[in-house]
Amino acid sequence: MNTVESLKYFIPELILLVGAFFVFTIDFFVKNKRIVSGLTLLTLTLSLCFVKQPETALPLFYDFFHLDNFAHFFRYFALIAVFITLLLSYSYTPIRNQYEGEFYGLFLFMAFALILVATANNLLMIFLSVEFLSLLSYLLVGFLKNDRKAKEAAIKYLLFGSVCSAIMLYGMSLAYGASGSLELSTIGNTFFFAPFKPLALVAMLFFLVGLGFKISMAPFHMWAPDVYEGAPTPVTAFLSVAPKALGFAILFRIMAVGFLSLGRPPSLILTALSMLTMTLGNITAISQNNMKRFLAYSSIAQAGYILMGLAVLSKLGKESILIYLLAYLFTNLGAFAVAILVEEKTGNEDLAAFSGLSQRSPVTAAMMAVFLLSLAGIPPLAGFIGKYYVFAAALQAKFIMLAVIAAINSVVAAYYYFRIVRLMYLTPASGPVFSAAPKSITVVLCLTLVVVLAMGIFPSFFLDRILS
Amino acid sequence: MVTSDQIILVPLLPFIAFAVNLLAGRWLKHRAAWLSVAASTIACFIAIPVCWAVFQGNHFANQGTWLMLGQTPLKFGYVMDPLSSSLLFMVTIVGTLIQIYAMGYMHGDPRYSRFFAYVSLFMSAMLTLSISDNYLLFFMSWEIMGLCSYLLIGFYFEKDSAAKAGFKAFLTTRVGDVGFLIGFLTLFSAIGTLNFSEMNALMANAHHAGAPLHAGLLSLAALLIFCGTIGKSAQFPLHVWLPDAMEGPTPVSALIHAATMVAAGVFLVARSFSLFMIVPNVLPVVTVIGTITAFMAAFIALTQTDIKRILAYSTISQLGYMVTALGLSGLGAGTFHLITHAFFKALLFMAAGSVIHGTHVQDIREMGGLFKKMPHTATTFIIASLALAGIPPLSGFWSKDEILLSAFASGHKIVFMILLLTAFMTAFYMFRLIFLTFFGQPRNLKVHAHESPAVMTAPLWALAFGSIVIGFPGSPFMHHWFQKFMAHMVHHPEYEPSAFVMACSVAAAVCGISLAGVIYLKKIRWAQKTAETFSFLYRLSLNKCYFDELYSRCIVKPFQSLGRFLFGFDARIVDGAVNGTGHATLFISAVKGWIDKYIVDGLVNFTGTLTHFLNSIVKRLQTGFVQNYLLIVFIGILVFLVWELKII
Amino acid sequence: MSSHILSWIIFAPLIGAAAVLLMPKSKTSWIRWCALLTTLIVFGLTCYALSMFQGSRAGFQMLEKAAWIPQFNVQYLVGTDGISFPMVFLTALISLLACMGSLAHIRVKEGREKEYYFLFLLLETGMMGTFLALDLFLFYIFWEVVLVPMYFLIGIWGGPRREYAAIKFFLYTLAGSLFMLLGILAVYFAASPHTFSMIDLVKMPRDFFFQKIVFLAFFLGFAIKVPIFPFHTWLPDAHVEAPTPISVILAGVLLKMGTYGFLRFSYPLFPEAAVWFQPAMGVLAVIGIVYGGFVALAQTDFKKMVAYSSVSHMGFVLLGLAAMNANGFRGALLQMFNHGTITGGLFLLVGVLYDRAHTRDLNDFGGLGAKMPGYAGILTFFSLASLGLPGLSGFISEFLTLLGSYQYSKVMTATATIGIILAAAYLLYMIQRVLLGQLNPKWTGLTDINWQEVITLAPLMVFILALGIYPNLILDYMIPTLDGLLKILGGAVR
Amino acid sequence: MIIPLAHILIFSLLLFATGLYGVLVRRNIIGILISIELMLNAANINLIAFSKSTSLSPETGQIFAIFVLAIAATTAAVGLAIVLALYRVRKTVYTDEVHLLKW
């Protein structure tokens, strides 16, 4: 499909681009940043309105982009993630300065980059979009001026990310050399033939490094806790969800199209990585005392569960990734929303800020409890449906060891999630009683709570829409 | 006119009295006793005509399904045959009389209504047991009697000794009960029924066929069922609870621990007699246990000074007689002694209770010369003692004679000799008690004795009458009617009366009485001298063969007591199985608690500790230096590269 | 089919919980009465369902079916039979009494009534759902729903070590249930067509090796809940720390979920594996009986003693299950019911004493029998029921269990009877230390049990007595279903 | 003269290894950034070499290389900007002095 034809399927992305530039421009002239924020939301809403499900898989721009149902899901995913993050940012005090508009503009670019990642179908495009995403992330992490931690986080993120990208690029060059093409499908076809297999495996490993960094897969996860702690909390929330999800999307596409013909070894490696990731994440999370760091390790562990779906590389595995990610999106953003609220009210990022929350703000505490239970995978909440799906995928593919390890890990995870529940409910109150929460956070909380509950109780509604 | 089904009312009425007394006792106060006595009396009047009909040769039974065991319905019902009617006859009469007596004895007690509630429950259970037609119902009422015994022994529960005695009694008998339970489970698995009549029929068939169906299983069943008897009837080696049970109020001792409940163990063997007859090797065990019990208890009774304890050991001894009789296939003899013994032993206890009531002491060394002050009590006591000693023509003579006869005629000469010796000792210790209590001079001037009220003495006389005449149905004057009556039950050997045995029996009794008279009325020093001469035997007897002390010594000085006892080895078993059960198990359970805490829980906690340990390691990887992170990435790549190249 | 009575039973507490949630925090009496009314309504509904229940039928009754997650063929499938209905009835009863007990006992921390009763009612929904669900997925959901409120109820209103006890309970059970979830999924994928419905799954044959593996997975989930030795160590902690009404629910209902799971799921789904594991189950049961008894004997904490007695008594249930014959099953199911009423009552009684004396140390008491005659009588009653006195319900279930197990293994039965002696020992030893002997002058100020507490206990006593005298009252409902189950297991009803 | 493909690949591998080594041992962040450039360029050499020898359409690899150069420049720019900002608040450009965030 040529450029002109493709453009009409590309309207939401174009809106985002135009909106982003517009926001940057307006930001120069307008003092009231509420207008800028309103404009970003408007852009996102418009973009959301124009998202249309493709009837068949569309090879846009000479098949540089591949818009299928899979990508379509992630378009929604990216837009919703950005939308919620923006709502969270509005009530986050440290961002309120003269560069506020820039922050919003960067997020519109971010949305654009996320969609590119979701649809990219060519090594070149994959590299470019992932780098785009990374660069934006570096900037957002280091956004806070004169914040020692933020700057440190940004530089660590940048160094770590760039090295991983370079390794992935090296892997891409090897894949290119082996197959003579940058098209994923061609690469997949070539690797079907035996002589290329060792090279293909090395290339795949390098891909895993570059994208594993994005999804914070062990042992390429080391950046995550530091960066999550240093970044502004809304950005942390965002990073823990959107780039990770898109990383899974593109990793799945690469594995399923490019390296499927390698047979069992990729599955084995991914299984090992999955076990390692969830175990490391869970074990380290136990002793964390900083809320953001805590959630960072939790999100590493969650990545381990999602990797189960990837490791089995089946249809059910794919579905399980989508469903887990959706559940995770709302649950984790909900948890972060509470974390931001608590941070705003107490000025403290430590877990101790949660002690006795149930007396100080029963509703907030109850919501947090729901999100934590969902993260722990307790039915009937969204997180359980996700966990159920990955277990199902693993068992269907007879990855019994993986499922057992995951089950044990879930218990460990429950232990530390319940640390916070315990703090909120079982320890005596300390700290201020909450006044009303800011509206934007309230909106986010209600939205995420409703989805988390609804997805747990009536999952079929969501499954219908995701899996159609 | 009484129909046979109304027999159900017999246990039901006391039960109603129990329920009402328990729930409304607070408002009934002393009327509680009237209720219980009334229930018991009416039950008596219902029961006696039915029993009479059975004595005429009738047989009643009825049953209804209670439970499904697999596809087999388990039917509960009553059966009125010679055995149950005899027991029912005895229990209703003796029970009613004792309750009347208790009205006087317990007068003024703060838990008066509670006492009568328990007694009524006991009556209800005992009567159910008497007429029950299957093992399960039998066992259920058996257990409820155990409960009542527990509650009533511990009736004065503020006294630690009473509370402990109740505990000991329940637990000790429970050991036997569990054996009984497994016993009839075994029986059920062997013959598929728990019903007495069906069992009897099956056994009779097997007897005719020559060999039992499952000889091994049935022997096991019989032995285990006999465990129930050992516990309940206080046979060696589970006898230790009965003397302690004297902590209960005296009417309870009379009713439960002399006349009825302890006899239920003997009744159980009688009930299962067809089973015991058909399996080999079990009856000798029964005989040996019974003989040892009879002799040992009589020996201990020789030197006891507590009036109730003497009677308690006497009860154990007499129960041993009954068991021996059954072991020698003397169903008629054993049952006969059961009935007669109930009368005179209940009387003895009640009279002893009257003495205690009048003097407020229990130690016979502090009594003396009470005959003049309490003539009714003393007279009835002496009548009962004569019956117990076996002086013709009182009831005890006839029944004891039957037992001696079965030992003699069946050729067990050693058993016969031991039993004869026991009879001698029985007469001796009873009259030692009488002479010390009622004759001579008062030894403690602080004791101001007075005769008990009529409500207590009237039952004494009634029972005294019973003690005299109840033996006649088994005597030659009535042509051994009772033995023939019992022979309807199960086929068992009958022996011709022997004048030699009678003479021996009377001689033993008379010797015992005279010796006691000589020593305790004239030459009191002889007693001391004898005690010094045979100091070993004396101390053995005085200390109840050390059954109780053994345990505490085992804890305090475990090795000292080792070589010291005549029954050392047996006592050791007793210690382990009975006396020390509580404490020995406490030790074990302390160890188990430790296991629980450190091993089982430890495994789980270990997982937690391991997690935390790993946590502390993994956490350290997160150094904060970005290049360390990259190094880990590099190492990760290398590891996976190697692994990848290996799996290809 | 026409009436949705079972759904009402499941969700009525949820409606009540929502109502509690909507009430203002300060109106504590409204909240209390609302909760009590809800449990009462649920009990009423259960009684109504009882009138519709056909005891003579073997299969599932009152089925309600609706597609829930069609993608996974998950149905909302609830129904009842002779195994689950007694448990439902027990749940309704115990919940009602525990709620009454809560009114009397629980010293709810300032202003937290709302949370308490909300969680309480949520718990009831979970329990009802667990017993009524016939779809494995649905069952799992309800099973887990029970956990969370329990965690809070122990953790917030418990004793001094409540946090530890709560998380221990939670993690233990969660670990077990996750393995069960894996088992459930394995069953699902092994079925063709894929389904979670028990009605369909029972009809499908399964490979023997597969059965063994998945039986183990289910076993872990259920064994921890029962709890079977050596998975029992969460139980004393949870019981001791939980507030009285919650201990009652824990002992009365939650423990039964494990054994219910065996009867409902493990046995019908994996009959050959069940037979294969029979000796192991029997041995574990006997160990539990004897071990629990010994440890109970060593306790000085009243509540802990009762808790360990639960281990022992639940061992009898397992022994009956392991016997795999008609009497064993009947005894086991009956014991499940009876243990609920008896131990529930004992926990209430511990609470009565603790509320007055603020200690549970057995050695600290003594002579209370004279001071608190009413209490003494009731405590003795429940203790006797617990030690298996004939005429009270505990006896008949233990008898049937032993009869059943005797047909299976004589040695196990003989060993198990040690547990009976031990039960007498530790219960009477407890009575001796609490009620008998000299009154400790410390306790001269104690008041006797009051009417409110007696009313809470009275229904339990009625059931204990009624079932002890005529067990067919409830056995009639159970027998057809249990015999049906036995046929699946390949045994004849003997 | 045609340089054999293998030689080029070994060269690029060496270059990559050098870059990786630099990344791991340099303490100066600028130095690390330069080392990253080396790694990217190693990949570039690969791409160009492969485009000549194996590819169906030789231009794709070369175009890729050009894009990589652009990206490398961007990364360096962003990186230097962040280093500058870091220096402003922390007064250091050495990685071993930047470890506030850990554990």
Question: What's the helix and strand layout?
Answer:
The complex is a heterotetramer of chains A (468), B (648), C (494) and D (103).
Chain B: H1 9-28, H2 31-55, E1 60-69, E2 72-80, H3 82-105, H4 112-131, H5 135-153, H6 160-191, H7 196-209, H8 215-232, H9 241-244, H10 250-259, H11 261-271, H12 273-278, H13 282-301, H14 307-327, H15 331-359, H16 375-389, H17 395-409, H18 413-438, H19 454-469, H20 481-487, H21 499-522, H22 524-533, H23 535-542, H24 547-556, H25 568-579, H26 581-621, H27 626-647
Antiparallel strand pairs in B: 1-2
Helix pairs in contact in B: 1-2, 1-4, 2-3, 2-4, 3-4, 3-10, 3-15, 3-19, 4-5, 5-6, 5-10, 6-8, 8-11, 8-13, 10-15, 11-14, 11-15, 13-14, 13-18, 14-15, 14-17, 14-18, 15-16, 15-17, 15-19, 15-20, 16-18, 16-19, 17-18, 17-21, 18-21, 21-22, 22-23, 24-25, 25-26
Chain C: H1 5-22, H2 28-52, E1 61-69, E2 74-80, H3 84-104, H4 113-132, H5 136-157, H6 162-190, H7 198-201, H8 208-225, H9 234-241, H10 244-269, H11 271-298, H12 302-323, H13 326-357, H14 368-371, H15 373-386, H16 393-408, H17 410-434, H18 451-469, H19 472-488
Antiparallel strand pairs in C: 1-2
Helix pairs in contact in C: 1-2, 1-4, 2-3, 2-4, 3-4, 3-10, 3-13, 3-18, 4-5, 5-6, 5-10, 6-8, 6-9, 8-10, 8-11, 9-10, 9-12, 10-12, 10-13, 11-12, 11-17, 12-13, 12-16, 12-17, 13-15, 13-16, 13-18, 13-19, 15-17, 16-17, 16-18
Chain D: H1 5-25, H2 29-53, H3 59-90
Helix pairs in contact in D: 1-2, 2-3
Provide an overview of this structure.
The complex is a heterotetramer of chains A (468), B (648), C (494) and D (103). Chain A is an all-alpha fold and 468 residues long. In chain A, 78% of the residues lie in helices and 1% in strands. Chain A has helices at residues 3-7, 11-29, 33-50, 60-63, 69-90, 100-119, 123-141, 148-179, 184-191, 197-214, 223-230, 233-258, 264-285, 291-312, 315-346, 357-360, 362-376, 382-396, 400-426, 439-457, 459-467, and strands spanning 58-59, 65-67. In chain A, strands 1-2 form a two-stranded antiparallel sheet. The radius of gyration of chain A is 21 Å and the shape is globular. The mean pLDDT of chain A is 89. Chain B is mostly helical. Chain B has helices spanning 9-28, 31-55, 82-105, 112-131, 135-153, 160-191, 196-209, 215-232, 241-244, 250-259, 261-271, 273-278, 282-301, 307-327, 331-359, 375-389, 395-409, 413-438, 454-469, 481-487, 499-522, 524-533, 535-542, 547-556, 568-579, 581-621, 626-647; strands at residues 60-69, 72-80. Chain B has a two-stranded antiparallel ribbon with strand order 1-2. The longest helix of chain B has 41 residues, at 581-621. Chain B is globular. The model of chain B is unreliable at 554-586 (pLDDT under 50). With 494 residues, chain C is mainly alpha-helical. Chain C is globular and about 70 Å long. The mean pLDDT of chain C is 87. In chain C, strands 1-2 form a two-stranded antiparallel sheet. Chain C folds into 2 domains: 1-254, no CATH class; 277-494, no CATH class. With 103 residues, chain D is mainly alpha-helical. Chain D has a single domain, classed as Orthogonal Bundle (Helix Hairpins), CATH 1.10.287. Chain D has helices spanning 5-25, 29-53, 59-90. In chain D, helix 1 runs antiparallel to helix 2 and helix 2 packs antiparallel against helix 3. Chain D is elongated. The model of chain D has no long low-confidence stretch (mean pLDDT 88). Chains in contact: A-B, A-C, A-D, B-C, B-D. Chains A and C meet through helix 18, helix 19 and helix 21 of A and strand 1, helix 5 and helix 6 of C.
